[in-house]
Amino acid sequence: MAALNMGRSVAVIGSGAMGAGIAQVAAVAGYTVRLYDTRPEAVDKAIAGIASALDKLVARERMSAADCTAAIARLHAASTLDGVRDAGMVVEAIVEDLAAKRGLFAQLEDIVGDDCVLATNTSSISVTAIAAGLRLPGRVAGMHFFNPVPLMALCEVVSGMATDPAVAQLVFDTAAAWGKNPVHARSTPGFIVNRLARPFYAEGWRLLSEQAADAATIDAVMREAGGFRMGPFELMDLIGHDVNFSVTQSVFNAYFGDPRFTPSVLQQEMVNAGFLGRKAGRGCYQYGEQAAVPAA
Ligand code: NAI
Known about the structure:
11 helices, 10 strands, 3-hydroxybutyryl-CoA dehydrogenase activity, 2 domains, oxidoreductase, N-(1-d-carboxylethyl)-l-norvaline Dehydrogenase, domain 2, NAD+ binding, single chain, 15% strand, alpha/beta, 3-hydroxyacyl-CoA dehydrogenase PaaC, binds 1,4-dihydronicotinamide adenine dinucleotide, Rossmann fold
């Protein structure tokens, strides 16, 4: 099996943070990309954002002006879902909601050809459940990128119970063709990264609740002695506490309330307070004009 034929276009459905990043890597790798979003302004914003990111690469001499122009020319807005009819592969990056994803794929089955692969960027929903009920569930696989997509090399290629191994391999090879380091995984709650990371965050919250040390000290220990690029609190601030909390809840529920994955009450309060991390200007740290400082 090889990567998606370069003659086939890639449809990216959902043009938010992840969809824009996915469209960028696919276009830079030489694929024609059609972006669709229920909010057309999100598509315009994504294309403008990609153009600006690529312009910066040109300014830093990390991309030629000709390659930049060609990549931007490969990006097309689809004003309706019908506009992705010729896609060889769809990458779905819409809201993290099972019913929404199922509904979208059911609609797409009536639009795209039977050989079109349906990939989902879900971070926590069962790929098996997303595919269930479709006419051709074997063509659904997870293609889980990490944020920011152009910078993060890992891509988890997730097989649900019905996923055709040839489809998983095509997604794997396509991710590699887009410059990523893909790994195969089966659809278990949190897949590999979001599962393994749960105890990292949970023990951080427990240490904090027990007043073992403050967040900055725990982060510094993990960075300087533990060899991690970021400690748990700075990482959660980057991800967003709302997103991080809901992934923990989802893994906890998927394991029928296994206490190992119990969400943190302290983090729930941070979400209640709107202290969502960098994007809110405040999380475990405060963000402002100056460098981040620990929140009081
Ligand atoms: P986002 O909120 O930035 O973008 C989602 C976009 O989807 C919005 O522009 C929205 O208008 C659009 N949308 C919603 N319903 C739609 C529908 N039915 N049809 C077409 N467009 C629709 O969200 P983000 O962060 O880009 O996440 C998208 C997906 O990627 C989610 O499943 C999320 O769990 C997953 N993901 C997110 C990561 C992150 O760090 N943000 C990391 C890895 C996966």
